[in-house]
Amino acid sequence: MRKSILIFLTVLAGSSHLGLSQVQVANPCPAAPATKLEAFDTNIASVVIKASAEVGSLSLNTGVVSVRCREITDANSGRKEQGISMEIAQTGQPRDRLLIDYDEIPSLLNAIDYLNKLDFSVTPLNAFDATFTTKGGLRIAAIGAQRTSAIYFSVRDARTNLASVMFSRDEVSRFKALIEQAKTKLDSLSGR
């Protein structure tokens, strides 16, 4: 009898060990929202009002980039955040929608200015890749290769593997103008 109980306990322990090794552990802590605007999606038991206004878009060879003003309000607390919603639609690929908090807009504009002024004197090497990334994943880059004597610009969602939308230097200036228009609109809404 004692031997039977011992065998039973051994089998039970072995089977419970096997069962544990096959359990998949889910991530109990999902990634925190990267922006203040994204944080509103975590609100529960509250009405969240999302408003937007089209600023404009750029149709490029490799896709379309659209800029919208964005305002999100928690109706219960009255808390409000503003910023930019940007949609990047590469030709033949799914659309990316990115959010940029209002307080990031000045640094984004400064980065666009800096990248747009880059030339081959930035490095003694034959190629460079200069990037700026917002908290929400918008990555703008200047890519230069002396072999072709060309500098190209791109925007993409740094959180995905989707292809970039490519810009010329003139198109970067138009892209910056859209962001400046969005900031001006947001400033007028909040009396800044």
Description:
This protein has 192 residues and is an alpha+beta fold. It has one domain (36-190): Secreted effector protein pipB2 fold. It is built from four helices and eight strands. It has helices at residues 2-21, 36-39, 105-117, 169-190; strands at residues 48-60, 63-74, 80-90, 95-101, 127-133, 138-145, 150-157, 165-167. The strands form two sheets. The protein has a four-stranded antiparallel beta sheet with strand order 1-2-3-4. Helix 3 runs antiparallel to helix 4. The longest helix has 22 residues, at 169-190. The model is unreliable at 15-22 (pLDDT under 50).
Q: Number of domains in the coordinates?
A: 1
Shape: elongated
> What is the CATH topology classification name?
Secreted effector protein pipB2 fold
Structural class: alpha+beta
The helix tally amounts to: 4
Note the main sheet. Answer: 4 strands, antiparallel
Q: Could you give the order of the helices and strands?
A: HHEEEEHEEEEH
Termini Cα gap: 84 Å
Q: What does the oligomeric state look like here?
A: single chain
Helix content: 25-40%
Order of strands across the main sheet: 1-2-3-4
Rg (C-alpha, Å): 25 Å
Q: How many E strands?
A: 8
CATH architecture: 2-Layer Sandwich
Q: Would you state the CATH class?
A: Alpha Beta
Q: What are the low-pLDDT stretches, counting only 5+ consecutive residues below 50?
A: 15-22
Give the percentage of residues in beta strands: 35-45%
Give the averaged pLDDT, no decimals: 85
